[in-house]
Amino acid sequence: MVGNLNQNTFALDQITKQDEKISYVAGASKDASIDGYTLNINLETLNGNPQNSTNIAHLIGGLSIKGSSVNNKINFTKIPQDPKRDVNLYGGISIRSDANSNSLNITSNGNNSSVYGGFSLDGKANLNEVTITSSKNLDRVIGGRSEYNGEANSNKVTIDSQSFVKSVVYGGVISKGKEASNNKVYINNSEIRKANSTTHVAGTVIGGKVEGEKGDANSNEVVIKASSIGGEVFGAEVYNKDGSSNRNKVTIENSPNIKENVYGGSSIIGKEASNNEVYINSSAVGGDVIGGRTDENGQANNNIVTITSSSTINQAVKGGWANEDANLNQIFIDKSTVNTFVAGGYSNNGVANSNSVTIENESKINDSVFGAYAKKGNANDNKVLINDSTIEKRVYGSLSNEGDANKNNLDLTSSSVGKDIYGGYATKANANKNNILLNKTRATSVIGGRGEKDTSLNKILADNSQINTFIIGGWSTGNGTANKNKILIQNSTKTNYVYGGFAEGSASENEVSINNSTIEKLAFGGQSNMGDANKNNLDLTSSSVGNIYGGYAKKGNTNDNAISINDSTINELVYGGLSGEGTANKNKISLKNSSVGSSVAGGSAKDEANYNFLEITSSNIGDNVYGGYSNKGDAIHNTVNLFHNSGRDITLGKHFLVKGIIHGGLSDGNNKDAITDNTLNVTGKDLIAGNIKNFDEANFNLPQGLKANDIVLQLTNDEDTVLNSVKVNPFVEQGKSKAIVKNLKPKEKIYIIKKASINENTLEEEQAINKDLKIESKELTKATKSIVSEVGASAVYNVELNKDKSNLYLEVGEPEPTPTPEPTPTPEPSKPITPKVNPKLNHTLIPNLASSHVVNQMSDLMGDNISNIAMLDNNISANTDNIISFGYIKGYKSNIGKSDTDVNGAIVDVGIASKADNALMGGFFEYSYADYDGSANSYSSDGKINAYAVGALARFDLTNNFFIDSYAKIGKLNNNYTLKGYDNLKVDKDSTFYSLGAFLGHDSYFDRFMLTNRLGYAYSNVDGYDLDINGETLNIKDISSKRIKFDSIAYYKTNTDTNLYARARLIYELDGKSSTYAPNIDKTVESKNKGFSGGGEIGVAYDIKPLSNISLGVGAMGGKIDELSANLRFVYGW
Predict the structure, then answer these.
(1) Confidence (pLDDT) at 878
(2) Distance (Å, rounded) from C-alpha 779 to C-alpha 801?
(3) Beta strand segments in 230-311, E
(4) pTM of structure
(5) Summary mean pLDDT of the chain
(6) Disulfide-capable partner of 266 in 125, 293, 532, 643 (CB 3.0 to 4.6 Å)?
(7) Which helix (H) or strand (E) holds 210?
(8) Among 52-66, 265-279, 503-517, 553-567, which stretch is predicted with the lowest mean pLDDT?
(9) How would you classify residue 158: left for phi > 0, otherwise alpha for psi between -120 and 50, otherwise beta?
(10) Residues sharing a CB contact under 8 Å with residue 651, sequence separation 6 or more, in sequence order
(11) Sign for the pseudo-dihedral over CA of 259, 262, 266, 268
(12) Mean pLDDT across 571-595
C-alpha cells in the first residue's frame, strides 16, 4: 500500500490482520527518487489475531526502485502489547541507488521488529538516524545498511529510556561495499539482549560493520550508559583481508552487565585495527576488552584502552592484539579489576614495541601484566606503570618467545606482585637496557632482563620494597652475557639473593648498590658459570647481607672487582673475587665500620690471587683476612690497609677487631710464593688482630696525638709473628721534619706492636703473650728520623723505636747534643733523662708583645696631642673660661723588633678639657682595635685585640714658656688568638692594663714660627695570665714598657687660619720584655725588646674659628719599631 504522492505525510493507524505479505509506504516510486516523505504510525486500535502471523509487515517512509530515497521519516508511536503481527520499519529504501538522511523515531513497543534508518541494495546508506525511546521487543536496529557497492557512513542510532532490543544494534553495515565509517551508536538505560539466540552475533552492538570481501570501518563510535549488553561490543568490525578498522571509539559507563567482549576496532582477517579507543567507567565486562584486534595478517597500533572507577573485566585486557605488529598501544586501568591478564601490545608474528600499561588506585589484576607480548618478534621500548595496586601473578615490561625484549621500563609504587617482575624476558634472544623502578612494592623476584642470549645494561631500583627471593640485573640462561647491569636497593627488606649479572658466559662490569636493606643470603656483583666475572662493583651501606662476592666464576677469572661496605653487617663471607678454576687478581675491598661473621678475601682462586687490595676501617671480622688466597698458584703483590683511631668501645664502628689472622697472601700450592711484595699498612691506633702473616713489608702510620701506653696494633694469638720489614711513620706537622708524640715521659712506651690477649666481650687487655716477634729490619721513615715527645707545652724528649722479645714500641731516649755542647760530667747510672726546651714555647710570647704595643699606641696618641689642645690656638690660653672637646683618630701599621710580628690597628680618643689659671685639666675615653700575626722559631700566632680605657690629662704652665704635660689611664683588653704550633690552639684572654706619662716641655716663638720641645717618660703594664697547653699550665707574665721619649714639633703659620707642622720623635725602650714561665722545665723564655726607635710626622692644621681646629698628619718610624701612620685631630672650644 502506497500513500498519496501528492502529499508528503501519511498516517497509518491499522494494518491487515491477515497472514499475507504487505508493505505500507508513505512515498514510493519505481524510477524517481523519493525525498521528504513522512509515515506517522499509530496502531493503538490494532487488536491481536488469535493466529500468529508468519509474514512480516514492512512499514517504509520512502521507497524507490531506481532512484534514491532520502530525507524520509517514520514516527512510530503506538502498537498493542501483543499484536500477533511482526513489523519491520525502514526510514528509506533504495534498490539501485542511495538511501540517505532518512530517520526513524520510535516511541512504541515493537513486535520482533527490525529497524533500518536507511537500506540500499546497490547504493549508499549514509546519514540516516534511528531514535528509539521506551521501546521494547525490537529485534534488530540498524542505522544504515548497504548490500552491494555502496557505503554506510555517518549514520546514528540512539536507544534510550529502558528500551529493549533482542538481537543486534549496528550504526552502519555493508556487505560488499566500500566502507562503514563515522557511524554513531548511543545506548542509554536500555538492554540489548541475546534473547535465547544461538547465533554468535545476537546481542551485539557495532558502530560500523563490514561483512563482505572488501571495505573499511573507521571513525565509528559506540556509547553505552547504564545499559545491559548481552553480546559483544565493537566500535567497528571488519571481516575481509584488505579492510581496516581504525580510529573507532567505544565508551561504556555505569553498565554492570556487558556480557561478552568489547573491541575498539576489529579486523579479524584484515590489515589493520589501529588508533581505536575503548573507555569503560563503573562497568562490568564479561569477556575481553581489546583496543584493536587483527587475527591474521594485520597490525594493531596506537590503540587506547581506559578502564576506571571500580570497573570489572572478567577476561583479558589488550591494547592491541595482532598477528603482525602491535605497537604504541596504551592501557589505563584505574581502581578496577581484571580477572585474567593485561597486555599493552600482543603480537603473534610481528613486533610489539612502545606499548604502555598504567594501573593505579587499588586496581587488581588476577593474572599477569605485560607491557607487550610477542611470540616471534621483538618486544622493545614498552612501559608499565603500576601504583597502589595488586597483580596476582607476574609483571613483564615485555615478553618475547623468539625475539628480543629490550629497553622496556617498569615503574611500580605501593603495589603487590604475587610472583616475578621482569623488565624484559626473551626466551630465546636478548634482554638488554631494561629499567625497573620499585617503591614500596612487594614481589617474589625481580629480574631486569632475562634471556637466552645477552642480558646487559639493565637497571633496577628497589626502594622501600620487599622482594622475597631474588633480584637479578641481567640473567642469561644460555651462552650469552650479563654485563653492565645496575641494581640499587635501598630501605628494603627480606631479599634472599642479589645478582648484578648471572650468566653462563661473561658476567662483568655490573654494579650493585645496597643501602639500608637486608639481603638474607647472597649478594653477587656478577656470577658466571662458564665465563669470567670481572670489573663488577658492589656497594653496601647500612645494610645486612649473608655473603658478598664482587665476582664469582666457576671456571673463568674474577679480576678487577670492587666491594665497598659501610656501616653494615655481613653474616658470613666477603670475597672480592672468587674463581673455581681461574685467577682472582686486582680485586678491591673497602670495609668501614662494619661486621663480618667469617672471613674476608680480596681474591680467592685455584690459580693466581695477586695484586688484590683490602682496606679495612674500624670493623669487626670473625675469622681470617686474606689479601689473596690461592689453591695452587701464587698469592703475591697484595695490599692490606688497616685504619682505626676511635678507641676500643665494643659498639660497632668504634673498635677494630680481626679475630683470625691477617694474611698478605696464602697458597696451598707446593713451593708457591705467598709473601713477595705483600704489604700491610696500619694507620691509627687501638687495632686488634689475632696475628699477621706473609707480609713482605709492614708500614705503621701513626696518628696525631699518640700518648703513653697507646697501642697501635695488638696481636692476641698465642703464636710467633714473623715480619721481613717494618717501617714506622709518625705524624709530622706540615712543613716540619720532626714527628711529635704527646706527653711520653721517660720509662713510658707507645706500642707499635704488642702481643697480649684480650677479653673479646670487653676488648680489654688480659695478659701479655710470651711469643717471639721476629722482624728482619725496622726503621723510621727518612722524613721522620727525629721523633720527639712534647710533655706539656715546654718539655721535649727524643723518642726511639725499640723492640723486645714480643713487642715493638717507641720510648724516650737520650736527648740530642746541642750544636755547641759544653763539657758534661760522666753520667751517673740513675741520672734521669733531661728534656729540651720545646721551640714552640717562644711563640706564646707574640700575643702579649702585641698587647703591649697596642697599649703604647693608645698612650702615644693621647700623650702626643696634649699640646694640640692647649697650645695650637693662642686664643685658648687667653680665654680661660673655655671648655674644649676633642677627638683623635689614628691608624697604623707596625712591625716589632725587625721580626715577623706585624700589628695593624686603629685608635679613637674622645674627651673634654678646661683651663683654669695655669692648669689645663681633662678626661678622655679610648678604644682600639688591632689584628696581628707573628712567628717565633717557625711557629706562628695570630689574633685580634680589642681595648678600652678611661683616663685623665693635665698641663701645667710654668714660667719662661716651660710646661709639664701628663696623663694616666686604666683599661681592659681582650686578646683572641691562635697558637698554630700547638695544633691551632684557640685562646681568648682578658687583661687589665694601665699607663701613665709625664713630659717637660718648652715653647719658643719666632714671628710666624713656633717650636715645641718635650722630654719625658712613659710607662705601661699589661697583666699576665695562666695558659693551659697539653696538660701544662704556663704563666704568661705581666709585660711592662718603660720608655724615654723626646719629640720636637715646629708650627709655621702660613695665614691666619692655616698652620703647617713637622714633628720629630726619638724613643728608647728600657724594658718591653714578654716572658712565659714553663713549670715542666722550670724555665722562663722571653723576648727582649730594648732599643731605639725614631721618626717623624708632617701635617696641616686649620683653624675653623678662634677656639676650634682640625688637623691631618702622616708619620713614619724606624728602629726597634717600624711604623707607618696617619691621624686626624679635631679640637672644639665653646
Answers:
(1) 44
(2) 8
(3) 233-238, 249-253, 257-258, 262-267, 277-281, 284-285, 289-293, 304-308
(4) 0.76
(5) 90
(6) 293
(7) strand 205-210
(8) 52-66
(9) beta
(10) none
(11) negative
(12) 97
* Cβ atoms of residues 1051 and 766 within 8 Å: no
User: C-alpha cell of 818?
Assistant: 746541642
What are the grid coordinates assigned to 761, written together?
666481650
What are the b/e assignments for 346-360, b being 16+ CB within 10 Å? bbbebbbbbbbbbbb
Lowest mean pLDDT across 281-295, 677-691, 978-992, 1092-1106: 1092-1106
825 pLDDT higher than 60: no
- Pairing state between β 129-133 and 103-106: parallel
pLDDT over 50 (residue 880): no
What span, in angstroms and rounded, lies between the C-alpha atoms of 12 and 406?
69
Q: Cβ distance 269 to 240 under 8 Å?
A: yes
C-alpha cell at 314: 572478567
- Do 541 and 523 form a contact (C-beta atoms < 8 A)? no
Residues 940-966 have a mean pLDDT of 94
529 and 558 Cβ atoms separated by less than 8 Å: no
> Within 10 A of 674 (CB to CB), how many other CB atoms are there?
25
Alpha carbon distance 33, 31 (integer Å): 7
Tell me how far apart the 2 most distant CA atoms of the chain are, in Å. Answer: 164
Amino acid in position 895: N
Measure CA of the first residue to CA of the last residue in the chain; give whole Å: 135
Extract the C-alpha cell encoding 1120. Answer: 726597634
What is the predicted pLDDT for the residue at 876? 46
Asked whether residue 568 carries a pLDDT value surpassing 60, the answer given is yes
Q: With beta carbons less than 8 A apart as the criterion, state whether 736 and 788 touch.
A: no
Q: DSSP secondary-structure letter at 46?
A: P
Q: Dihedrals φ, ψ of 594, to 5°?
A: -135, 170
d(CA 1041, CA 1019): 6
815-831 mean pLDDT: 49
C-alpha–C-alpha distance, residues 744 and 707, integer Å: 6
Task: Return the number of other C-beta atoms located less than 10 Å from residue 1057's C-beta.
Answer: 12
Residue of 335, 331, 337, 395 lying closest to 365 (CA atoms): 337
For 1019, left (φ over 0), alpha (ψ -120 to 50), or beta?
A: beta
Contact call for residues 271 and 208 (beta carbons, < 8 A): no
